[in-house]
Amino acid sequence: MKNNRVAVIGAGMTRFVRRANESSGELASQAVQMALQDAGLTIDDIDCVCLGTAPDAFDGIHMNGENLIAGSGGRHKPYMRHYVGGGTGVMSPIHGWMHVASGKFRTCLVVCEEKMSPCNPHPAGAFLTIFDHTTEQPLELTLIHIFSIEMCRFMHTYGYTEEEIAQISVLCKKNAMDHPAAQIAQQITVKDVMSSPVLSWPVKRLDISPTSDAAVAIVLANETVARNHCKAPVFIEGVGYRLDTAYWCTRDLAFPNYVAMAARDAYEMAGITQPADQIDIWEPYDPFDYKALHHMNALLLDKGGRRTKELLHSGAFERSGSHPLCPSGGALGVGNPIAATGLMKIAELYFQLSGQAGKRQVNKNALRGVAQAWGDLMQVGTVVVMSSEGGMPRTTPWSQKKAEDLPGTALKSFDEVPHFKYEPDLRYAWDNGQALTTYLDGLKKGHIRGSKCPKCNRMMIPVRQFCEICNLQAVNDVYDLPDSGTVQTFTLSNVNWDSSPLPDGKVNIFAVIAIDGATEEMGLIHKLSEVKPKDVKIGMRVKAVWKPEAERTGNILDIQYFKPVSDKGQSDIRPRQIKPVELDAISAQPFKGRIPMKYIYTAGQGGGRFYKDLFEGKLSGTYCKACDAVHMPPTSFCEVSMTRLDPEKDARVVNPKSGVVAAFTVVHEDRSGHQLNEPKVVVQVEFPEAFGSVFGKLEVKDGDVIEVGMPVELVKLSKGAGAEQITFRSRA
Amino acid sequence: MGVVVLGVGYCGSFPTSSGLSYRELIARAASMAYQDAGINPEQIDGAVTVEEDFISGYSIADEYTPDQIGMVRKPIYTVPGDFLQGIGSAVMQIKTGRFKTVVVASFSKASNVLTKDEVVGFAYDPIFNRLGVTPHYLAGIEMQHFLSGSSFTAVDVAEFSAKSRNSALCNPLAPYASRVNVSDVLGARSVASPVTELMMARPADAAVVVVLGTDDEVMDTARKPVYVTGTGWASGNSIIERRDHGISAGTALAAKMAYAEANIENPEAEIDVAYVCDIYAHRALMHMEALGLSCDMLPFVNPDGGAQAGGDLFEATSGARFFDAVRQLRGEAGVHQIEGAERALVHGWRGVPTDTCAVVILEGEGR
């Protein structure tokens, strides 16, 4: 089974919605059931499972991959999650490809799930803590800020207008009108995009994809299995993925070199030498409209950007054009449940190249397509090239699917279903180490500090103890640098880090500033002030405005902001070498931070039934025909057979007074690890009619003897109560 | 094509490591691994890092992985899983034939996480399982199931903990080694009965980096190659209401996969030294059962003191064991060297509330 070719032989997906009723696991299970059905396989035919889900901060579950095992069909199977932020979706088939191409497995179920709606008040808030906790988070940045910053640089370098870029949003939303899973398909014009509210110039609301809940699954198989089970397998012919430095202010923001490198890897493997001529369908990642063009430059290996612009202006990106771009409708039209979006693009290539895309089928005999995703701190590129052996357009279940055929229940409000609020207390105290202690000490003293690599001679900001591009070369030479620099790119923002609007008339100007004395383009991000928004320009000279010395604490906010200065040339101040701070018990202070997230979870279909019953003092399980058992607690899928269950139709009444303690523990600490004044008893309770159990707390009365086998009953819950209030009491 | 451990590096473990940022901690382990392998980062084809967002303290932790291992702009991704799953992923990568050398890295800066139990509790299902008490409640439930379904007693569990902590007294990488006895363990503060404080591994800081390559690389670079002859990983049911808590199904399935690959039919007879995950002492015994190892094997289990003595490194916990296993097979384990050790088993578990486990079989040059 060595070095097998690997093919996609089935796909499934839920609808993409802003707020799904289904739990994370339920969404995954729905996509899995469809993918297995499409491939003509059962879960028993699957050798292993790969899961892609992006930040845990969205679903609001630490180790979210573990929570998703049952829903993804991974119970009692080799199951592994992979992760590259927003690039995860296209990394998923790559990791699945490794599982099969290595010869270790014949088949692999690849599942991507993202439920962004639990993250409140807005999922954008999760992006505050993607930035460096010490040097950037105090500035209260979010993803839209750096997207806007990147778009500004892209426009500046390649000469795009906002109107030209808006054409991509128009195209994608139009294409999505034929996609059954689409969340915001609509016919709009460039004028609509231009007149939509400016969130963070140059980004406007209609330049951005929505936040979404959804799951997508595909089935991968080696060539032997693929040919036995699939009429038109679509093969993965090339894969590539590259991750750039975390020091994002030091990078070329106009051209994503890391995407181009990933594309080169994939093309080399697929034998592609002229991508523009040899690829028929393009599914670049398009969370913002400019990103599709930004990525096309890289996918076309066209750093000059001329070809992309020509294709845009000639209409070649239309579905009927020579280079159809995002025929699915992309993230901008179908929706953007991060990891699931990337896998939706892979599914689109599978549909197109096997002739099953129905109304979306491109107007050419497409044999080869490329899908790409991107993410992290504008840092990762993941690329997959897929090809078919000539899948003519044909009628299949997928070619005829309509929105109502897909699972996934959209809610307008959480109030429609049982839901629970939760606020984790996630606090940290980061050790700064030698390098950052020296950097922060510089800020306290009114200096921006850098360190110089003796090998590549780069003067780097912030201070490092090693050079990340010179084989971890030790870096010991630290310098005070001028506190002036040049604006490389900027955004004029009307929103806070959590996406809430700034007060009327207030604009935050964030800029990437190349600091004088540092290596070219080596910069930092900070605010600009003492300048009108309309007067901010790339190339503008700026200087730091410091807090009074007595108020400085060794924080990036010791610089209040940068202000324009009139001098055109370099600062007269030259870098001055200093000694790094000596670390001792006093100087080695940690930098405190927290992840300030709040969540609202829907109970889902199974949980909804459970709590609805409990609010009435009842209990039910869900009957599974395949297992011939009543699953407890209620569920909308069977994790053993991966068949769909209906917690309402398949409900079986269970006597809530028939519980028996299967196991118990006396706990002495609260959820934070603090000693409880009174210990509590947690019990696992089984019911004679059901397979499974319920966990909850035991109400202990004087004289109760707690033991395994103790008869207990479930206490009726008041409406709105969640797992914390599930309580049993003795029946004795 | 065989896969070989070309080099290993380890920085830790420490109860705290306030003089080092996480980047500096990892860079030290990486430099050590590259030196051990006789290789420069620029010669390496790709990397797998192993970590979880909320333990690392970021919403997207994988952003901060490439720099400190010298892998900027290389093919690199993160496995939010057990360190040994990262090894399994890297081995598959190499076996595709597209990569010759891959580095695997993981770390713990547990001392920087001020609310560790909150983070662990945040892993529980939000609909059914966040009960508002210590997340270790499931360990208490598990231990009760395990003891009632096996011949082991709480004393056996305590003995395992005491043995681990005592045996590591001469291991400089084990900060929680201590001279304790069974009574100390059983009489320690109860956290979630029957689990006491001394049955639980305490959090620690460390970084571990492993360089893997194809066996045809060995002649050119590796100082003392160790062969990866089997890898396996599997997950039990994530729905804890329908999981059998008396056994580790994840371990049994992972072991079956790794044993088949390494052609092991009788694990106890064919394995010289075993490292089993012991974040909770009862889990070590549960894992041994699932691995097909009897109590006769105990003298050859976790000779470094395991996590009970070395600390809970979260995703990197089994990485510390992997590091020690490589040293054993090279004959470089010092005072806790198992004489003649030629084949090692390393096992990892992801901790509560999971039953996700992984097994790797390593063999020395002599086999």
Tell me what the structure shows.
By secondary structure, chain A is an alpha+beta fold. Chain A folds into three domains: 6-122 and 161-402, 3-Layer(aba) Sandwich (Peroxisomal Thiolase, Chain A, domain 1), CATH 3.40.47; 428-595, no CATH class; 604-730, OB fold (Dihydrolipoamide Acetyltransferase, E2P) (Beta Barrel), CATH 2.40.50.140. Chain A is built from 16 helices and 36 strands. In chain A, the strands form eight sheets. Chain A has a nine-stranded mixed sheet, with helices on both faces. In chain A, strands 6, 7, 20, 21, 22, 23 and 24 form a seven-stranded antiparallel sheet that branches. In chain A, a hairpin with a 7-residue loop joins strand 21 (508-515) and strand 22 (523-528). The radius of gyration of chain A is 28 Å and the shape is globular. Chain B is an alpha/beta fold and 367 residues long. Chain B has a domain at 3-114 and 204-217: Peroxisomal Thiolase, Chain A, domain 1. In chain B, helix 2 (53-56) links the parallel strand 2 (46-50) and strand 3. In chain B, helix 8 packs across helix 10 (281-291). The radius of gyration of chain B is 19 Å and the shape is globular. Chain B has a nine-stranded mixed sheet. In chain B, strands 5-6 form a two-stranded antiparallel ribbon. Chain B starts with a strand and ends with a strand.
- CATH architecture field of the domain at 3-114 and 204-217 in chain B: 3-Layer(aba) Sandwich
Strand order of the largest sheet of chain B: 3-2-4-7-1-8-11-10-9
Count the E strands of chain A. Answer: 36
The CATH architecture of the largest domain in chain A can be given as 3-Layer(aba) Sandwich
- Biggest sheet overview of chain B: 9 strands, mixed
The CATH superfamily of the largest domain in chain A is identified as: Thiolase/Chalcone synthase
Q: Per the principal axes of the C-alpha atoms, what is the gross shape of chain B?
A: globular
Alpha plus pi helix count of chain A? 16
For the record, the CATH class of the domain at 3-114 and 204-217 in chain B is Alpha Beta
Give the helix level of chain B as a range of percent. Answer: 25-40%
Residue stretches of chain B low in confidence (pLDDT < 50, at least 5 long) are none
**Helical content class of chain A:** 10-25%
- Helix-strand sequence of chain B: EHEHEHEHHHHEEEEHHEHHHEE
From the spread of the alpha carbons, the general shape of chain A counts as globular
Q: What class, by secondary structure content of chain A? A: alpha+beta
- Rounded to the nearest angstrom, the radius of gyration of chain A is 28 Å
Distance between the termini of chain B: 16 Å
CATH topology of the largest domain in chain A: Peroxisomal Thiolase, Chain A, domain 1
Distance between the termini of chain A: 61 Å
Low-confidence stretches of chain A: none
Helical/strand content category of chain B:
alpha/beta
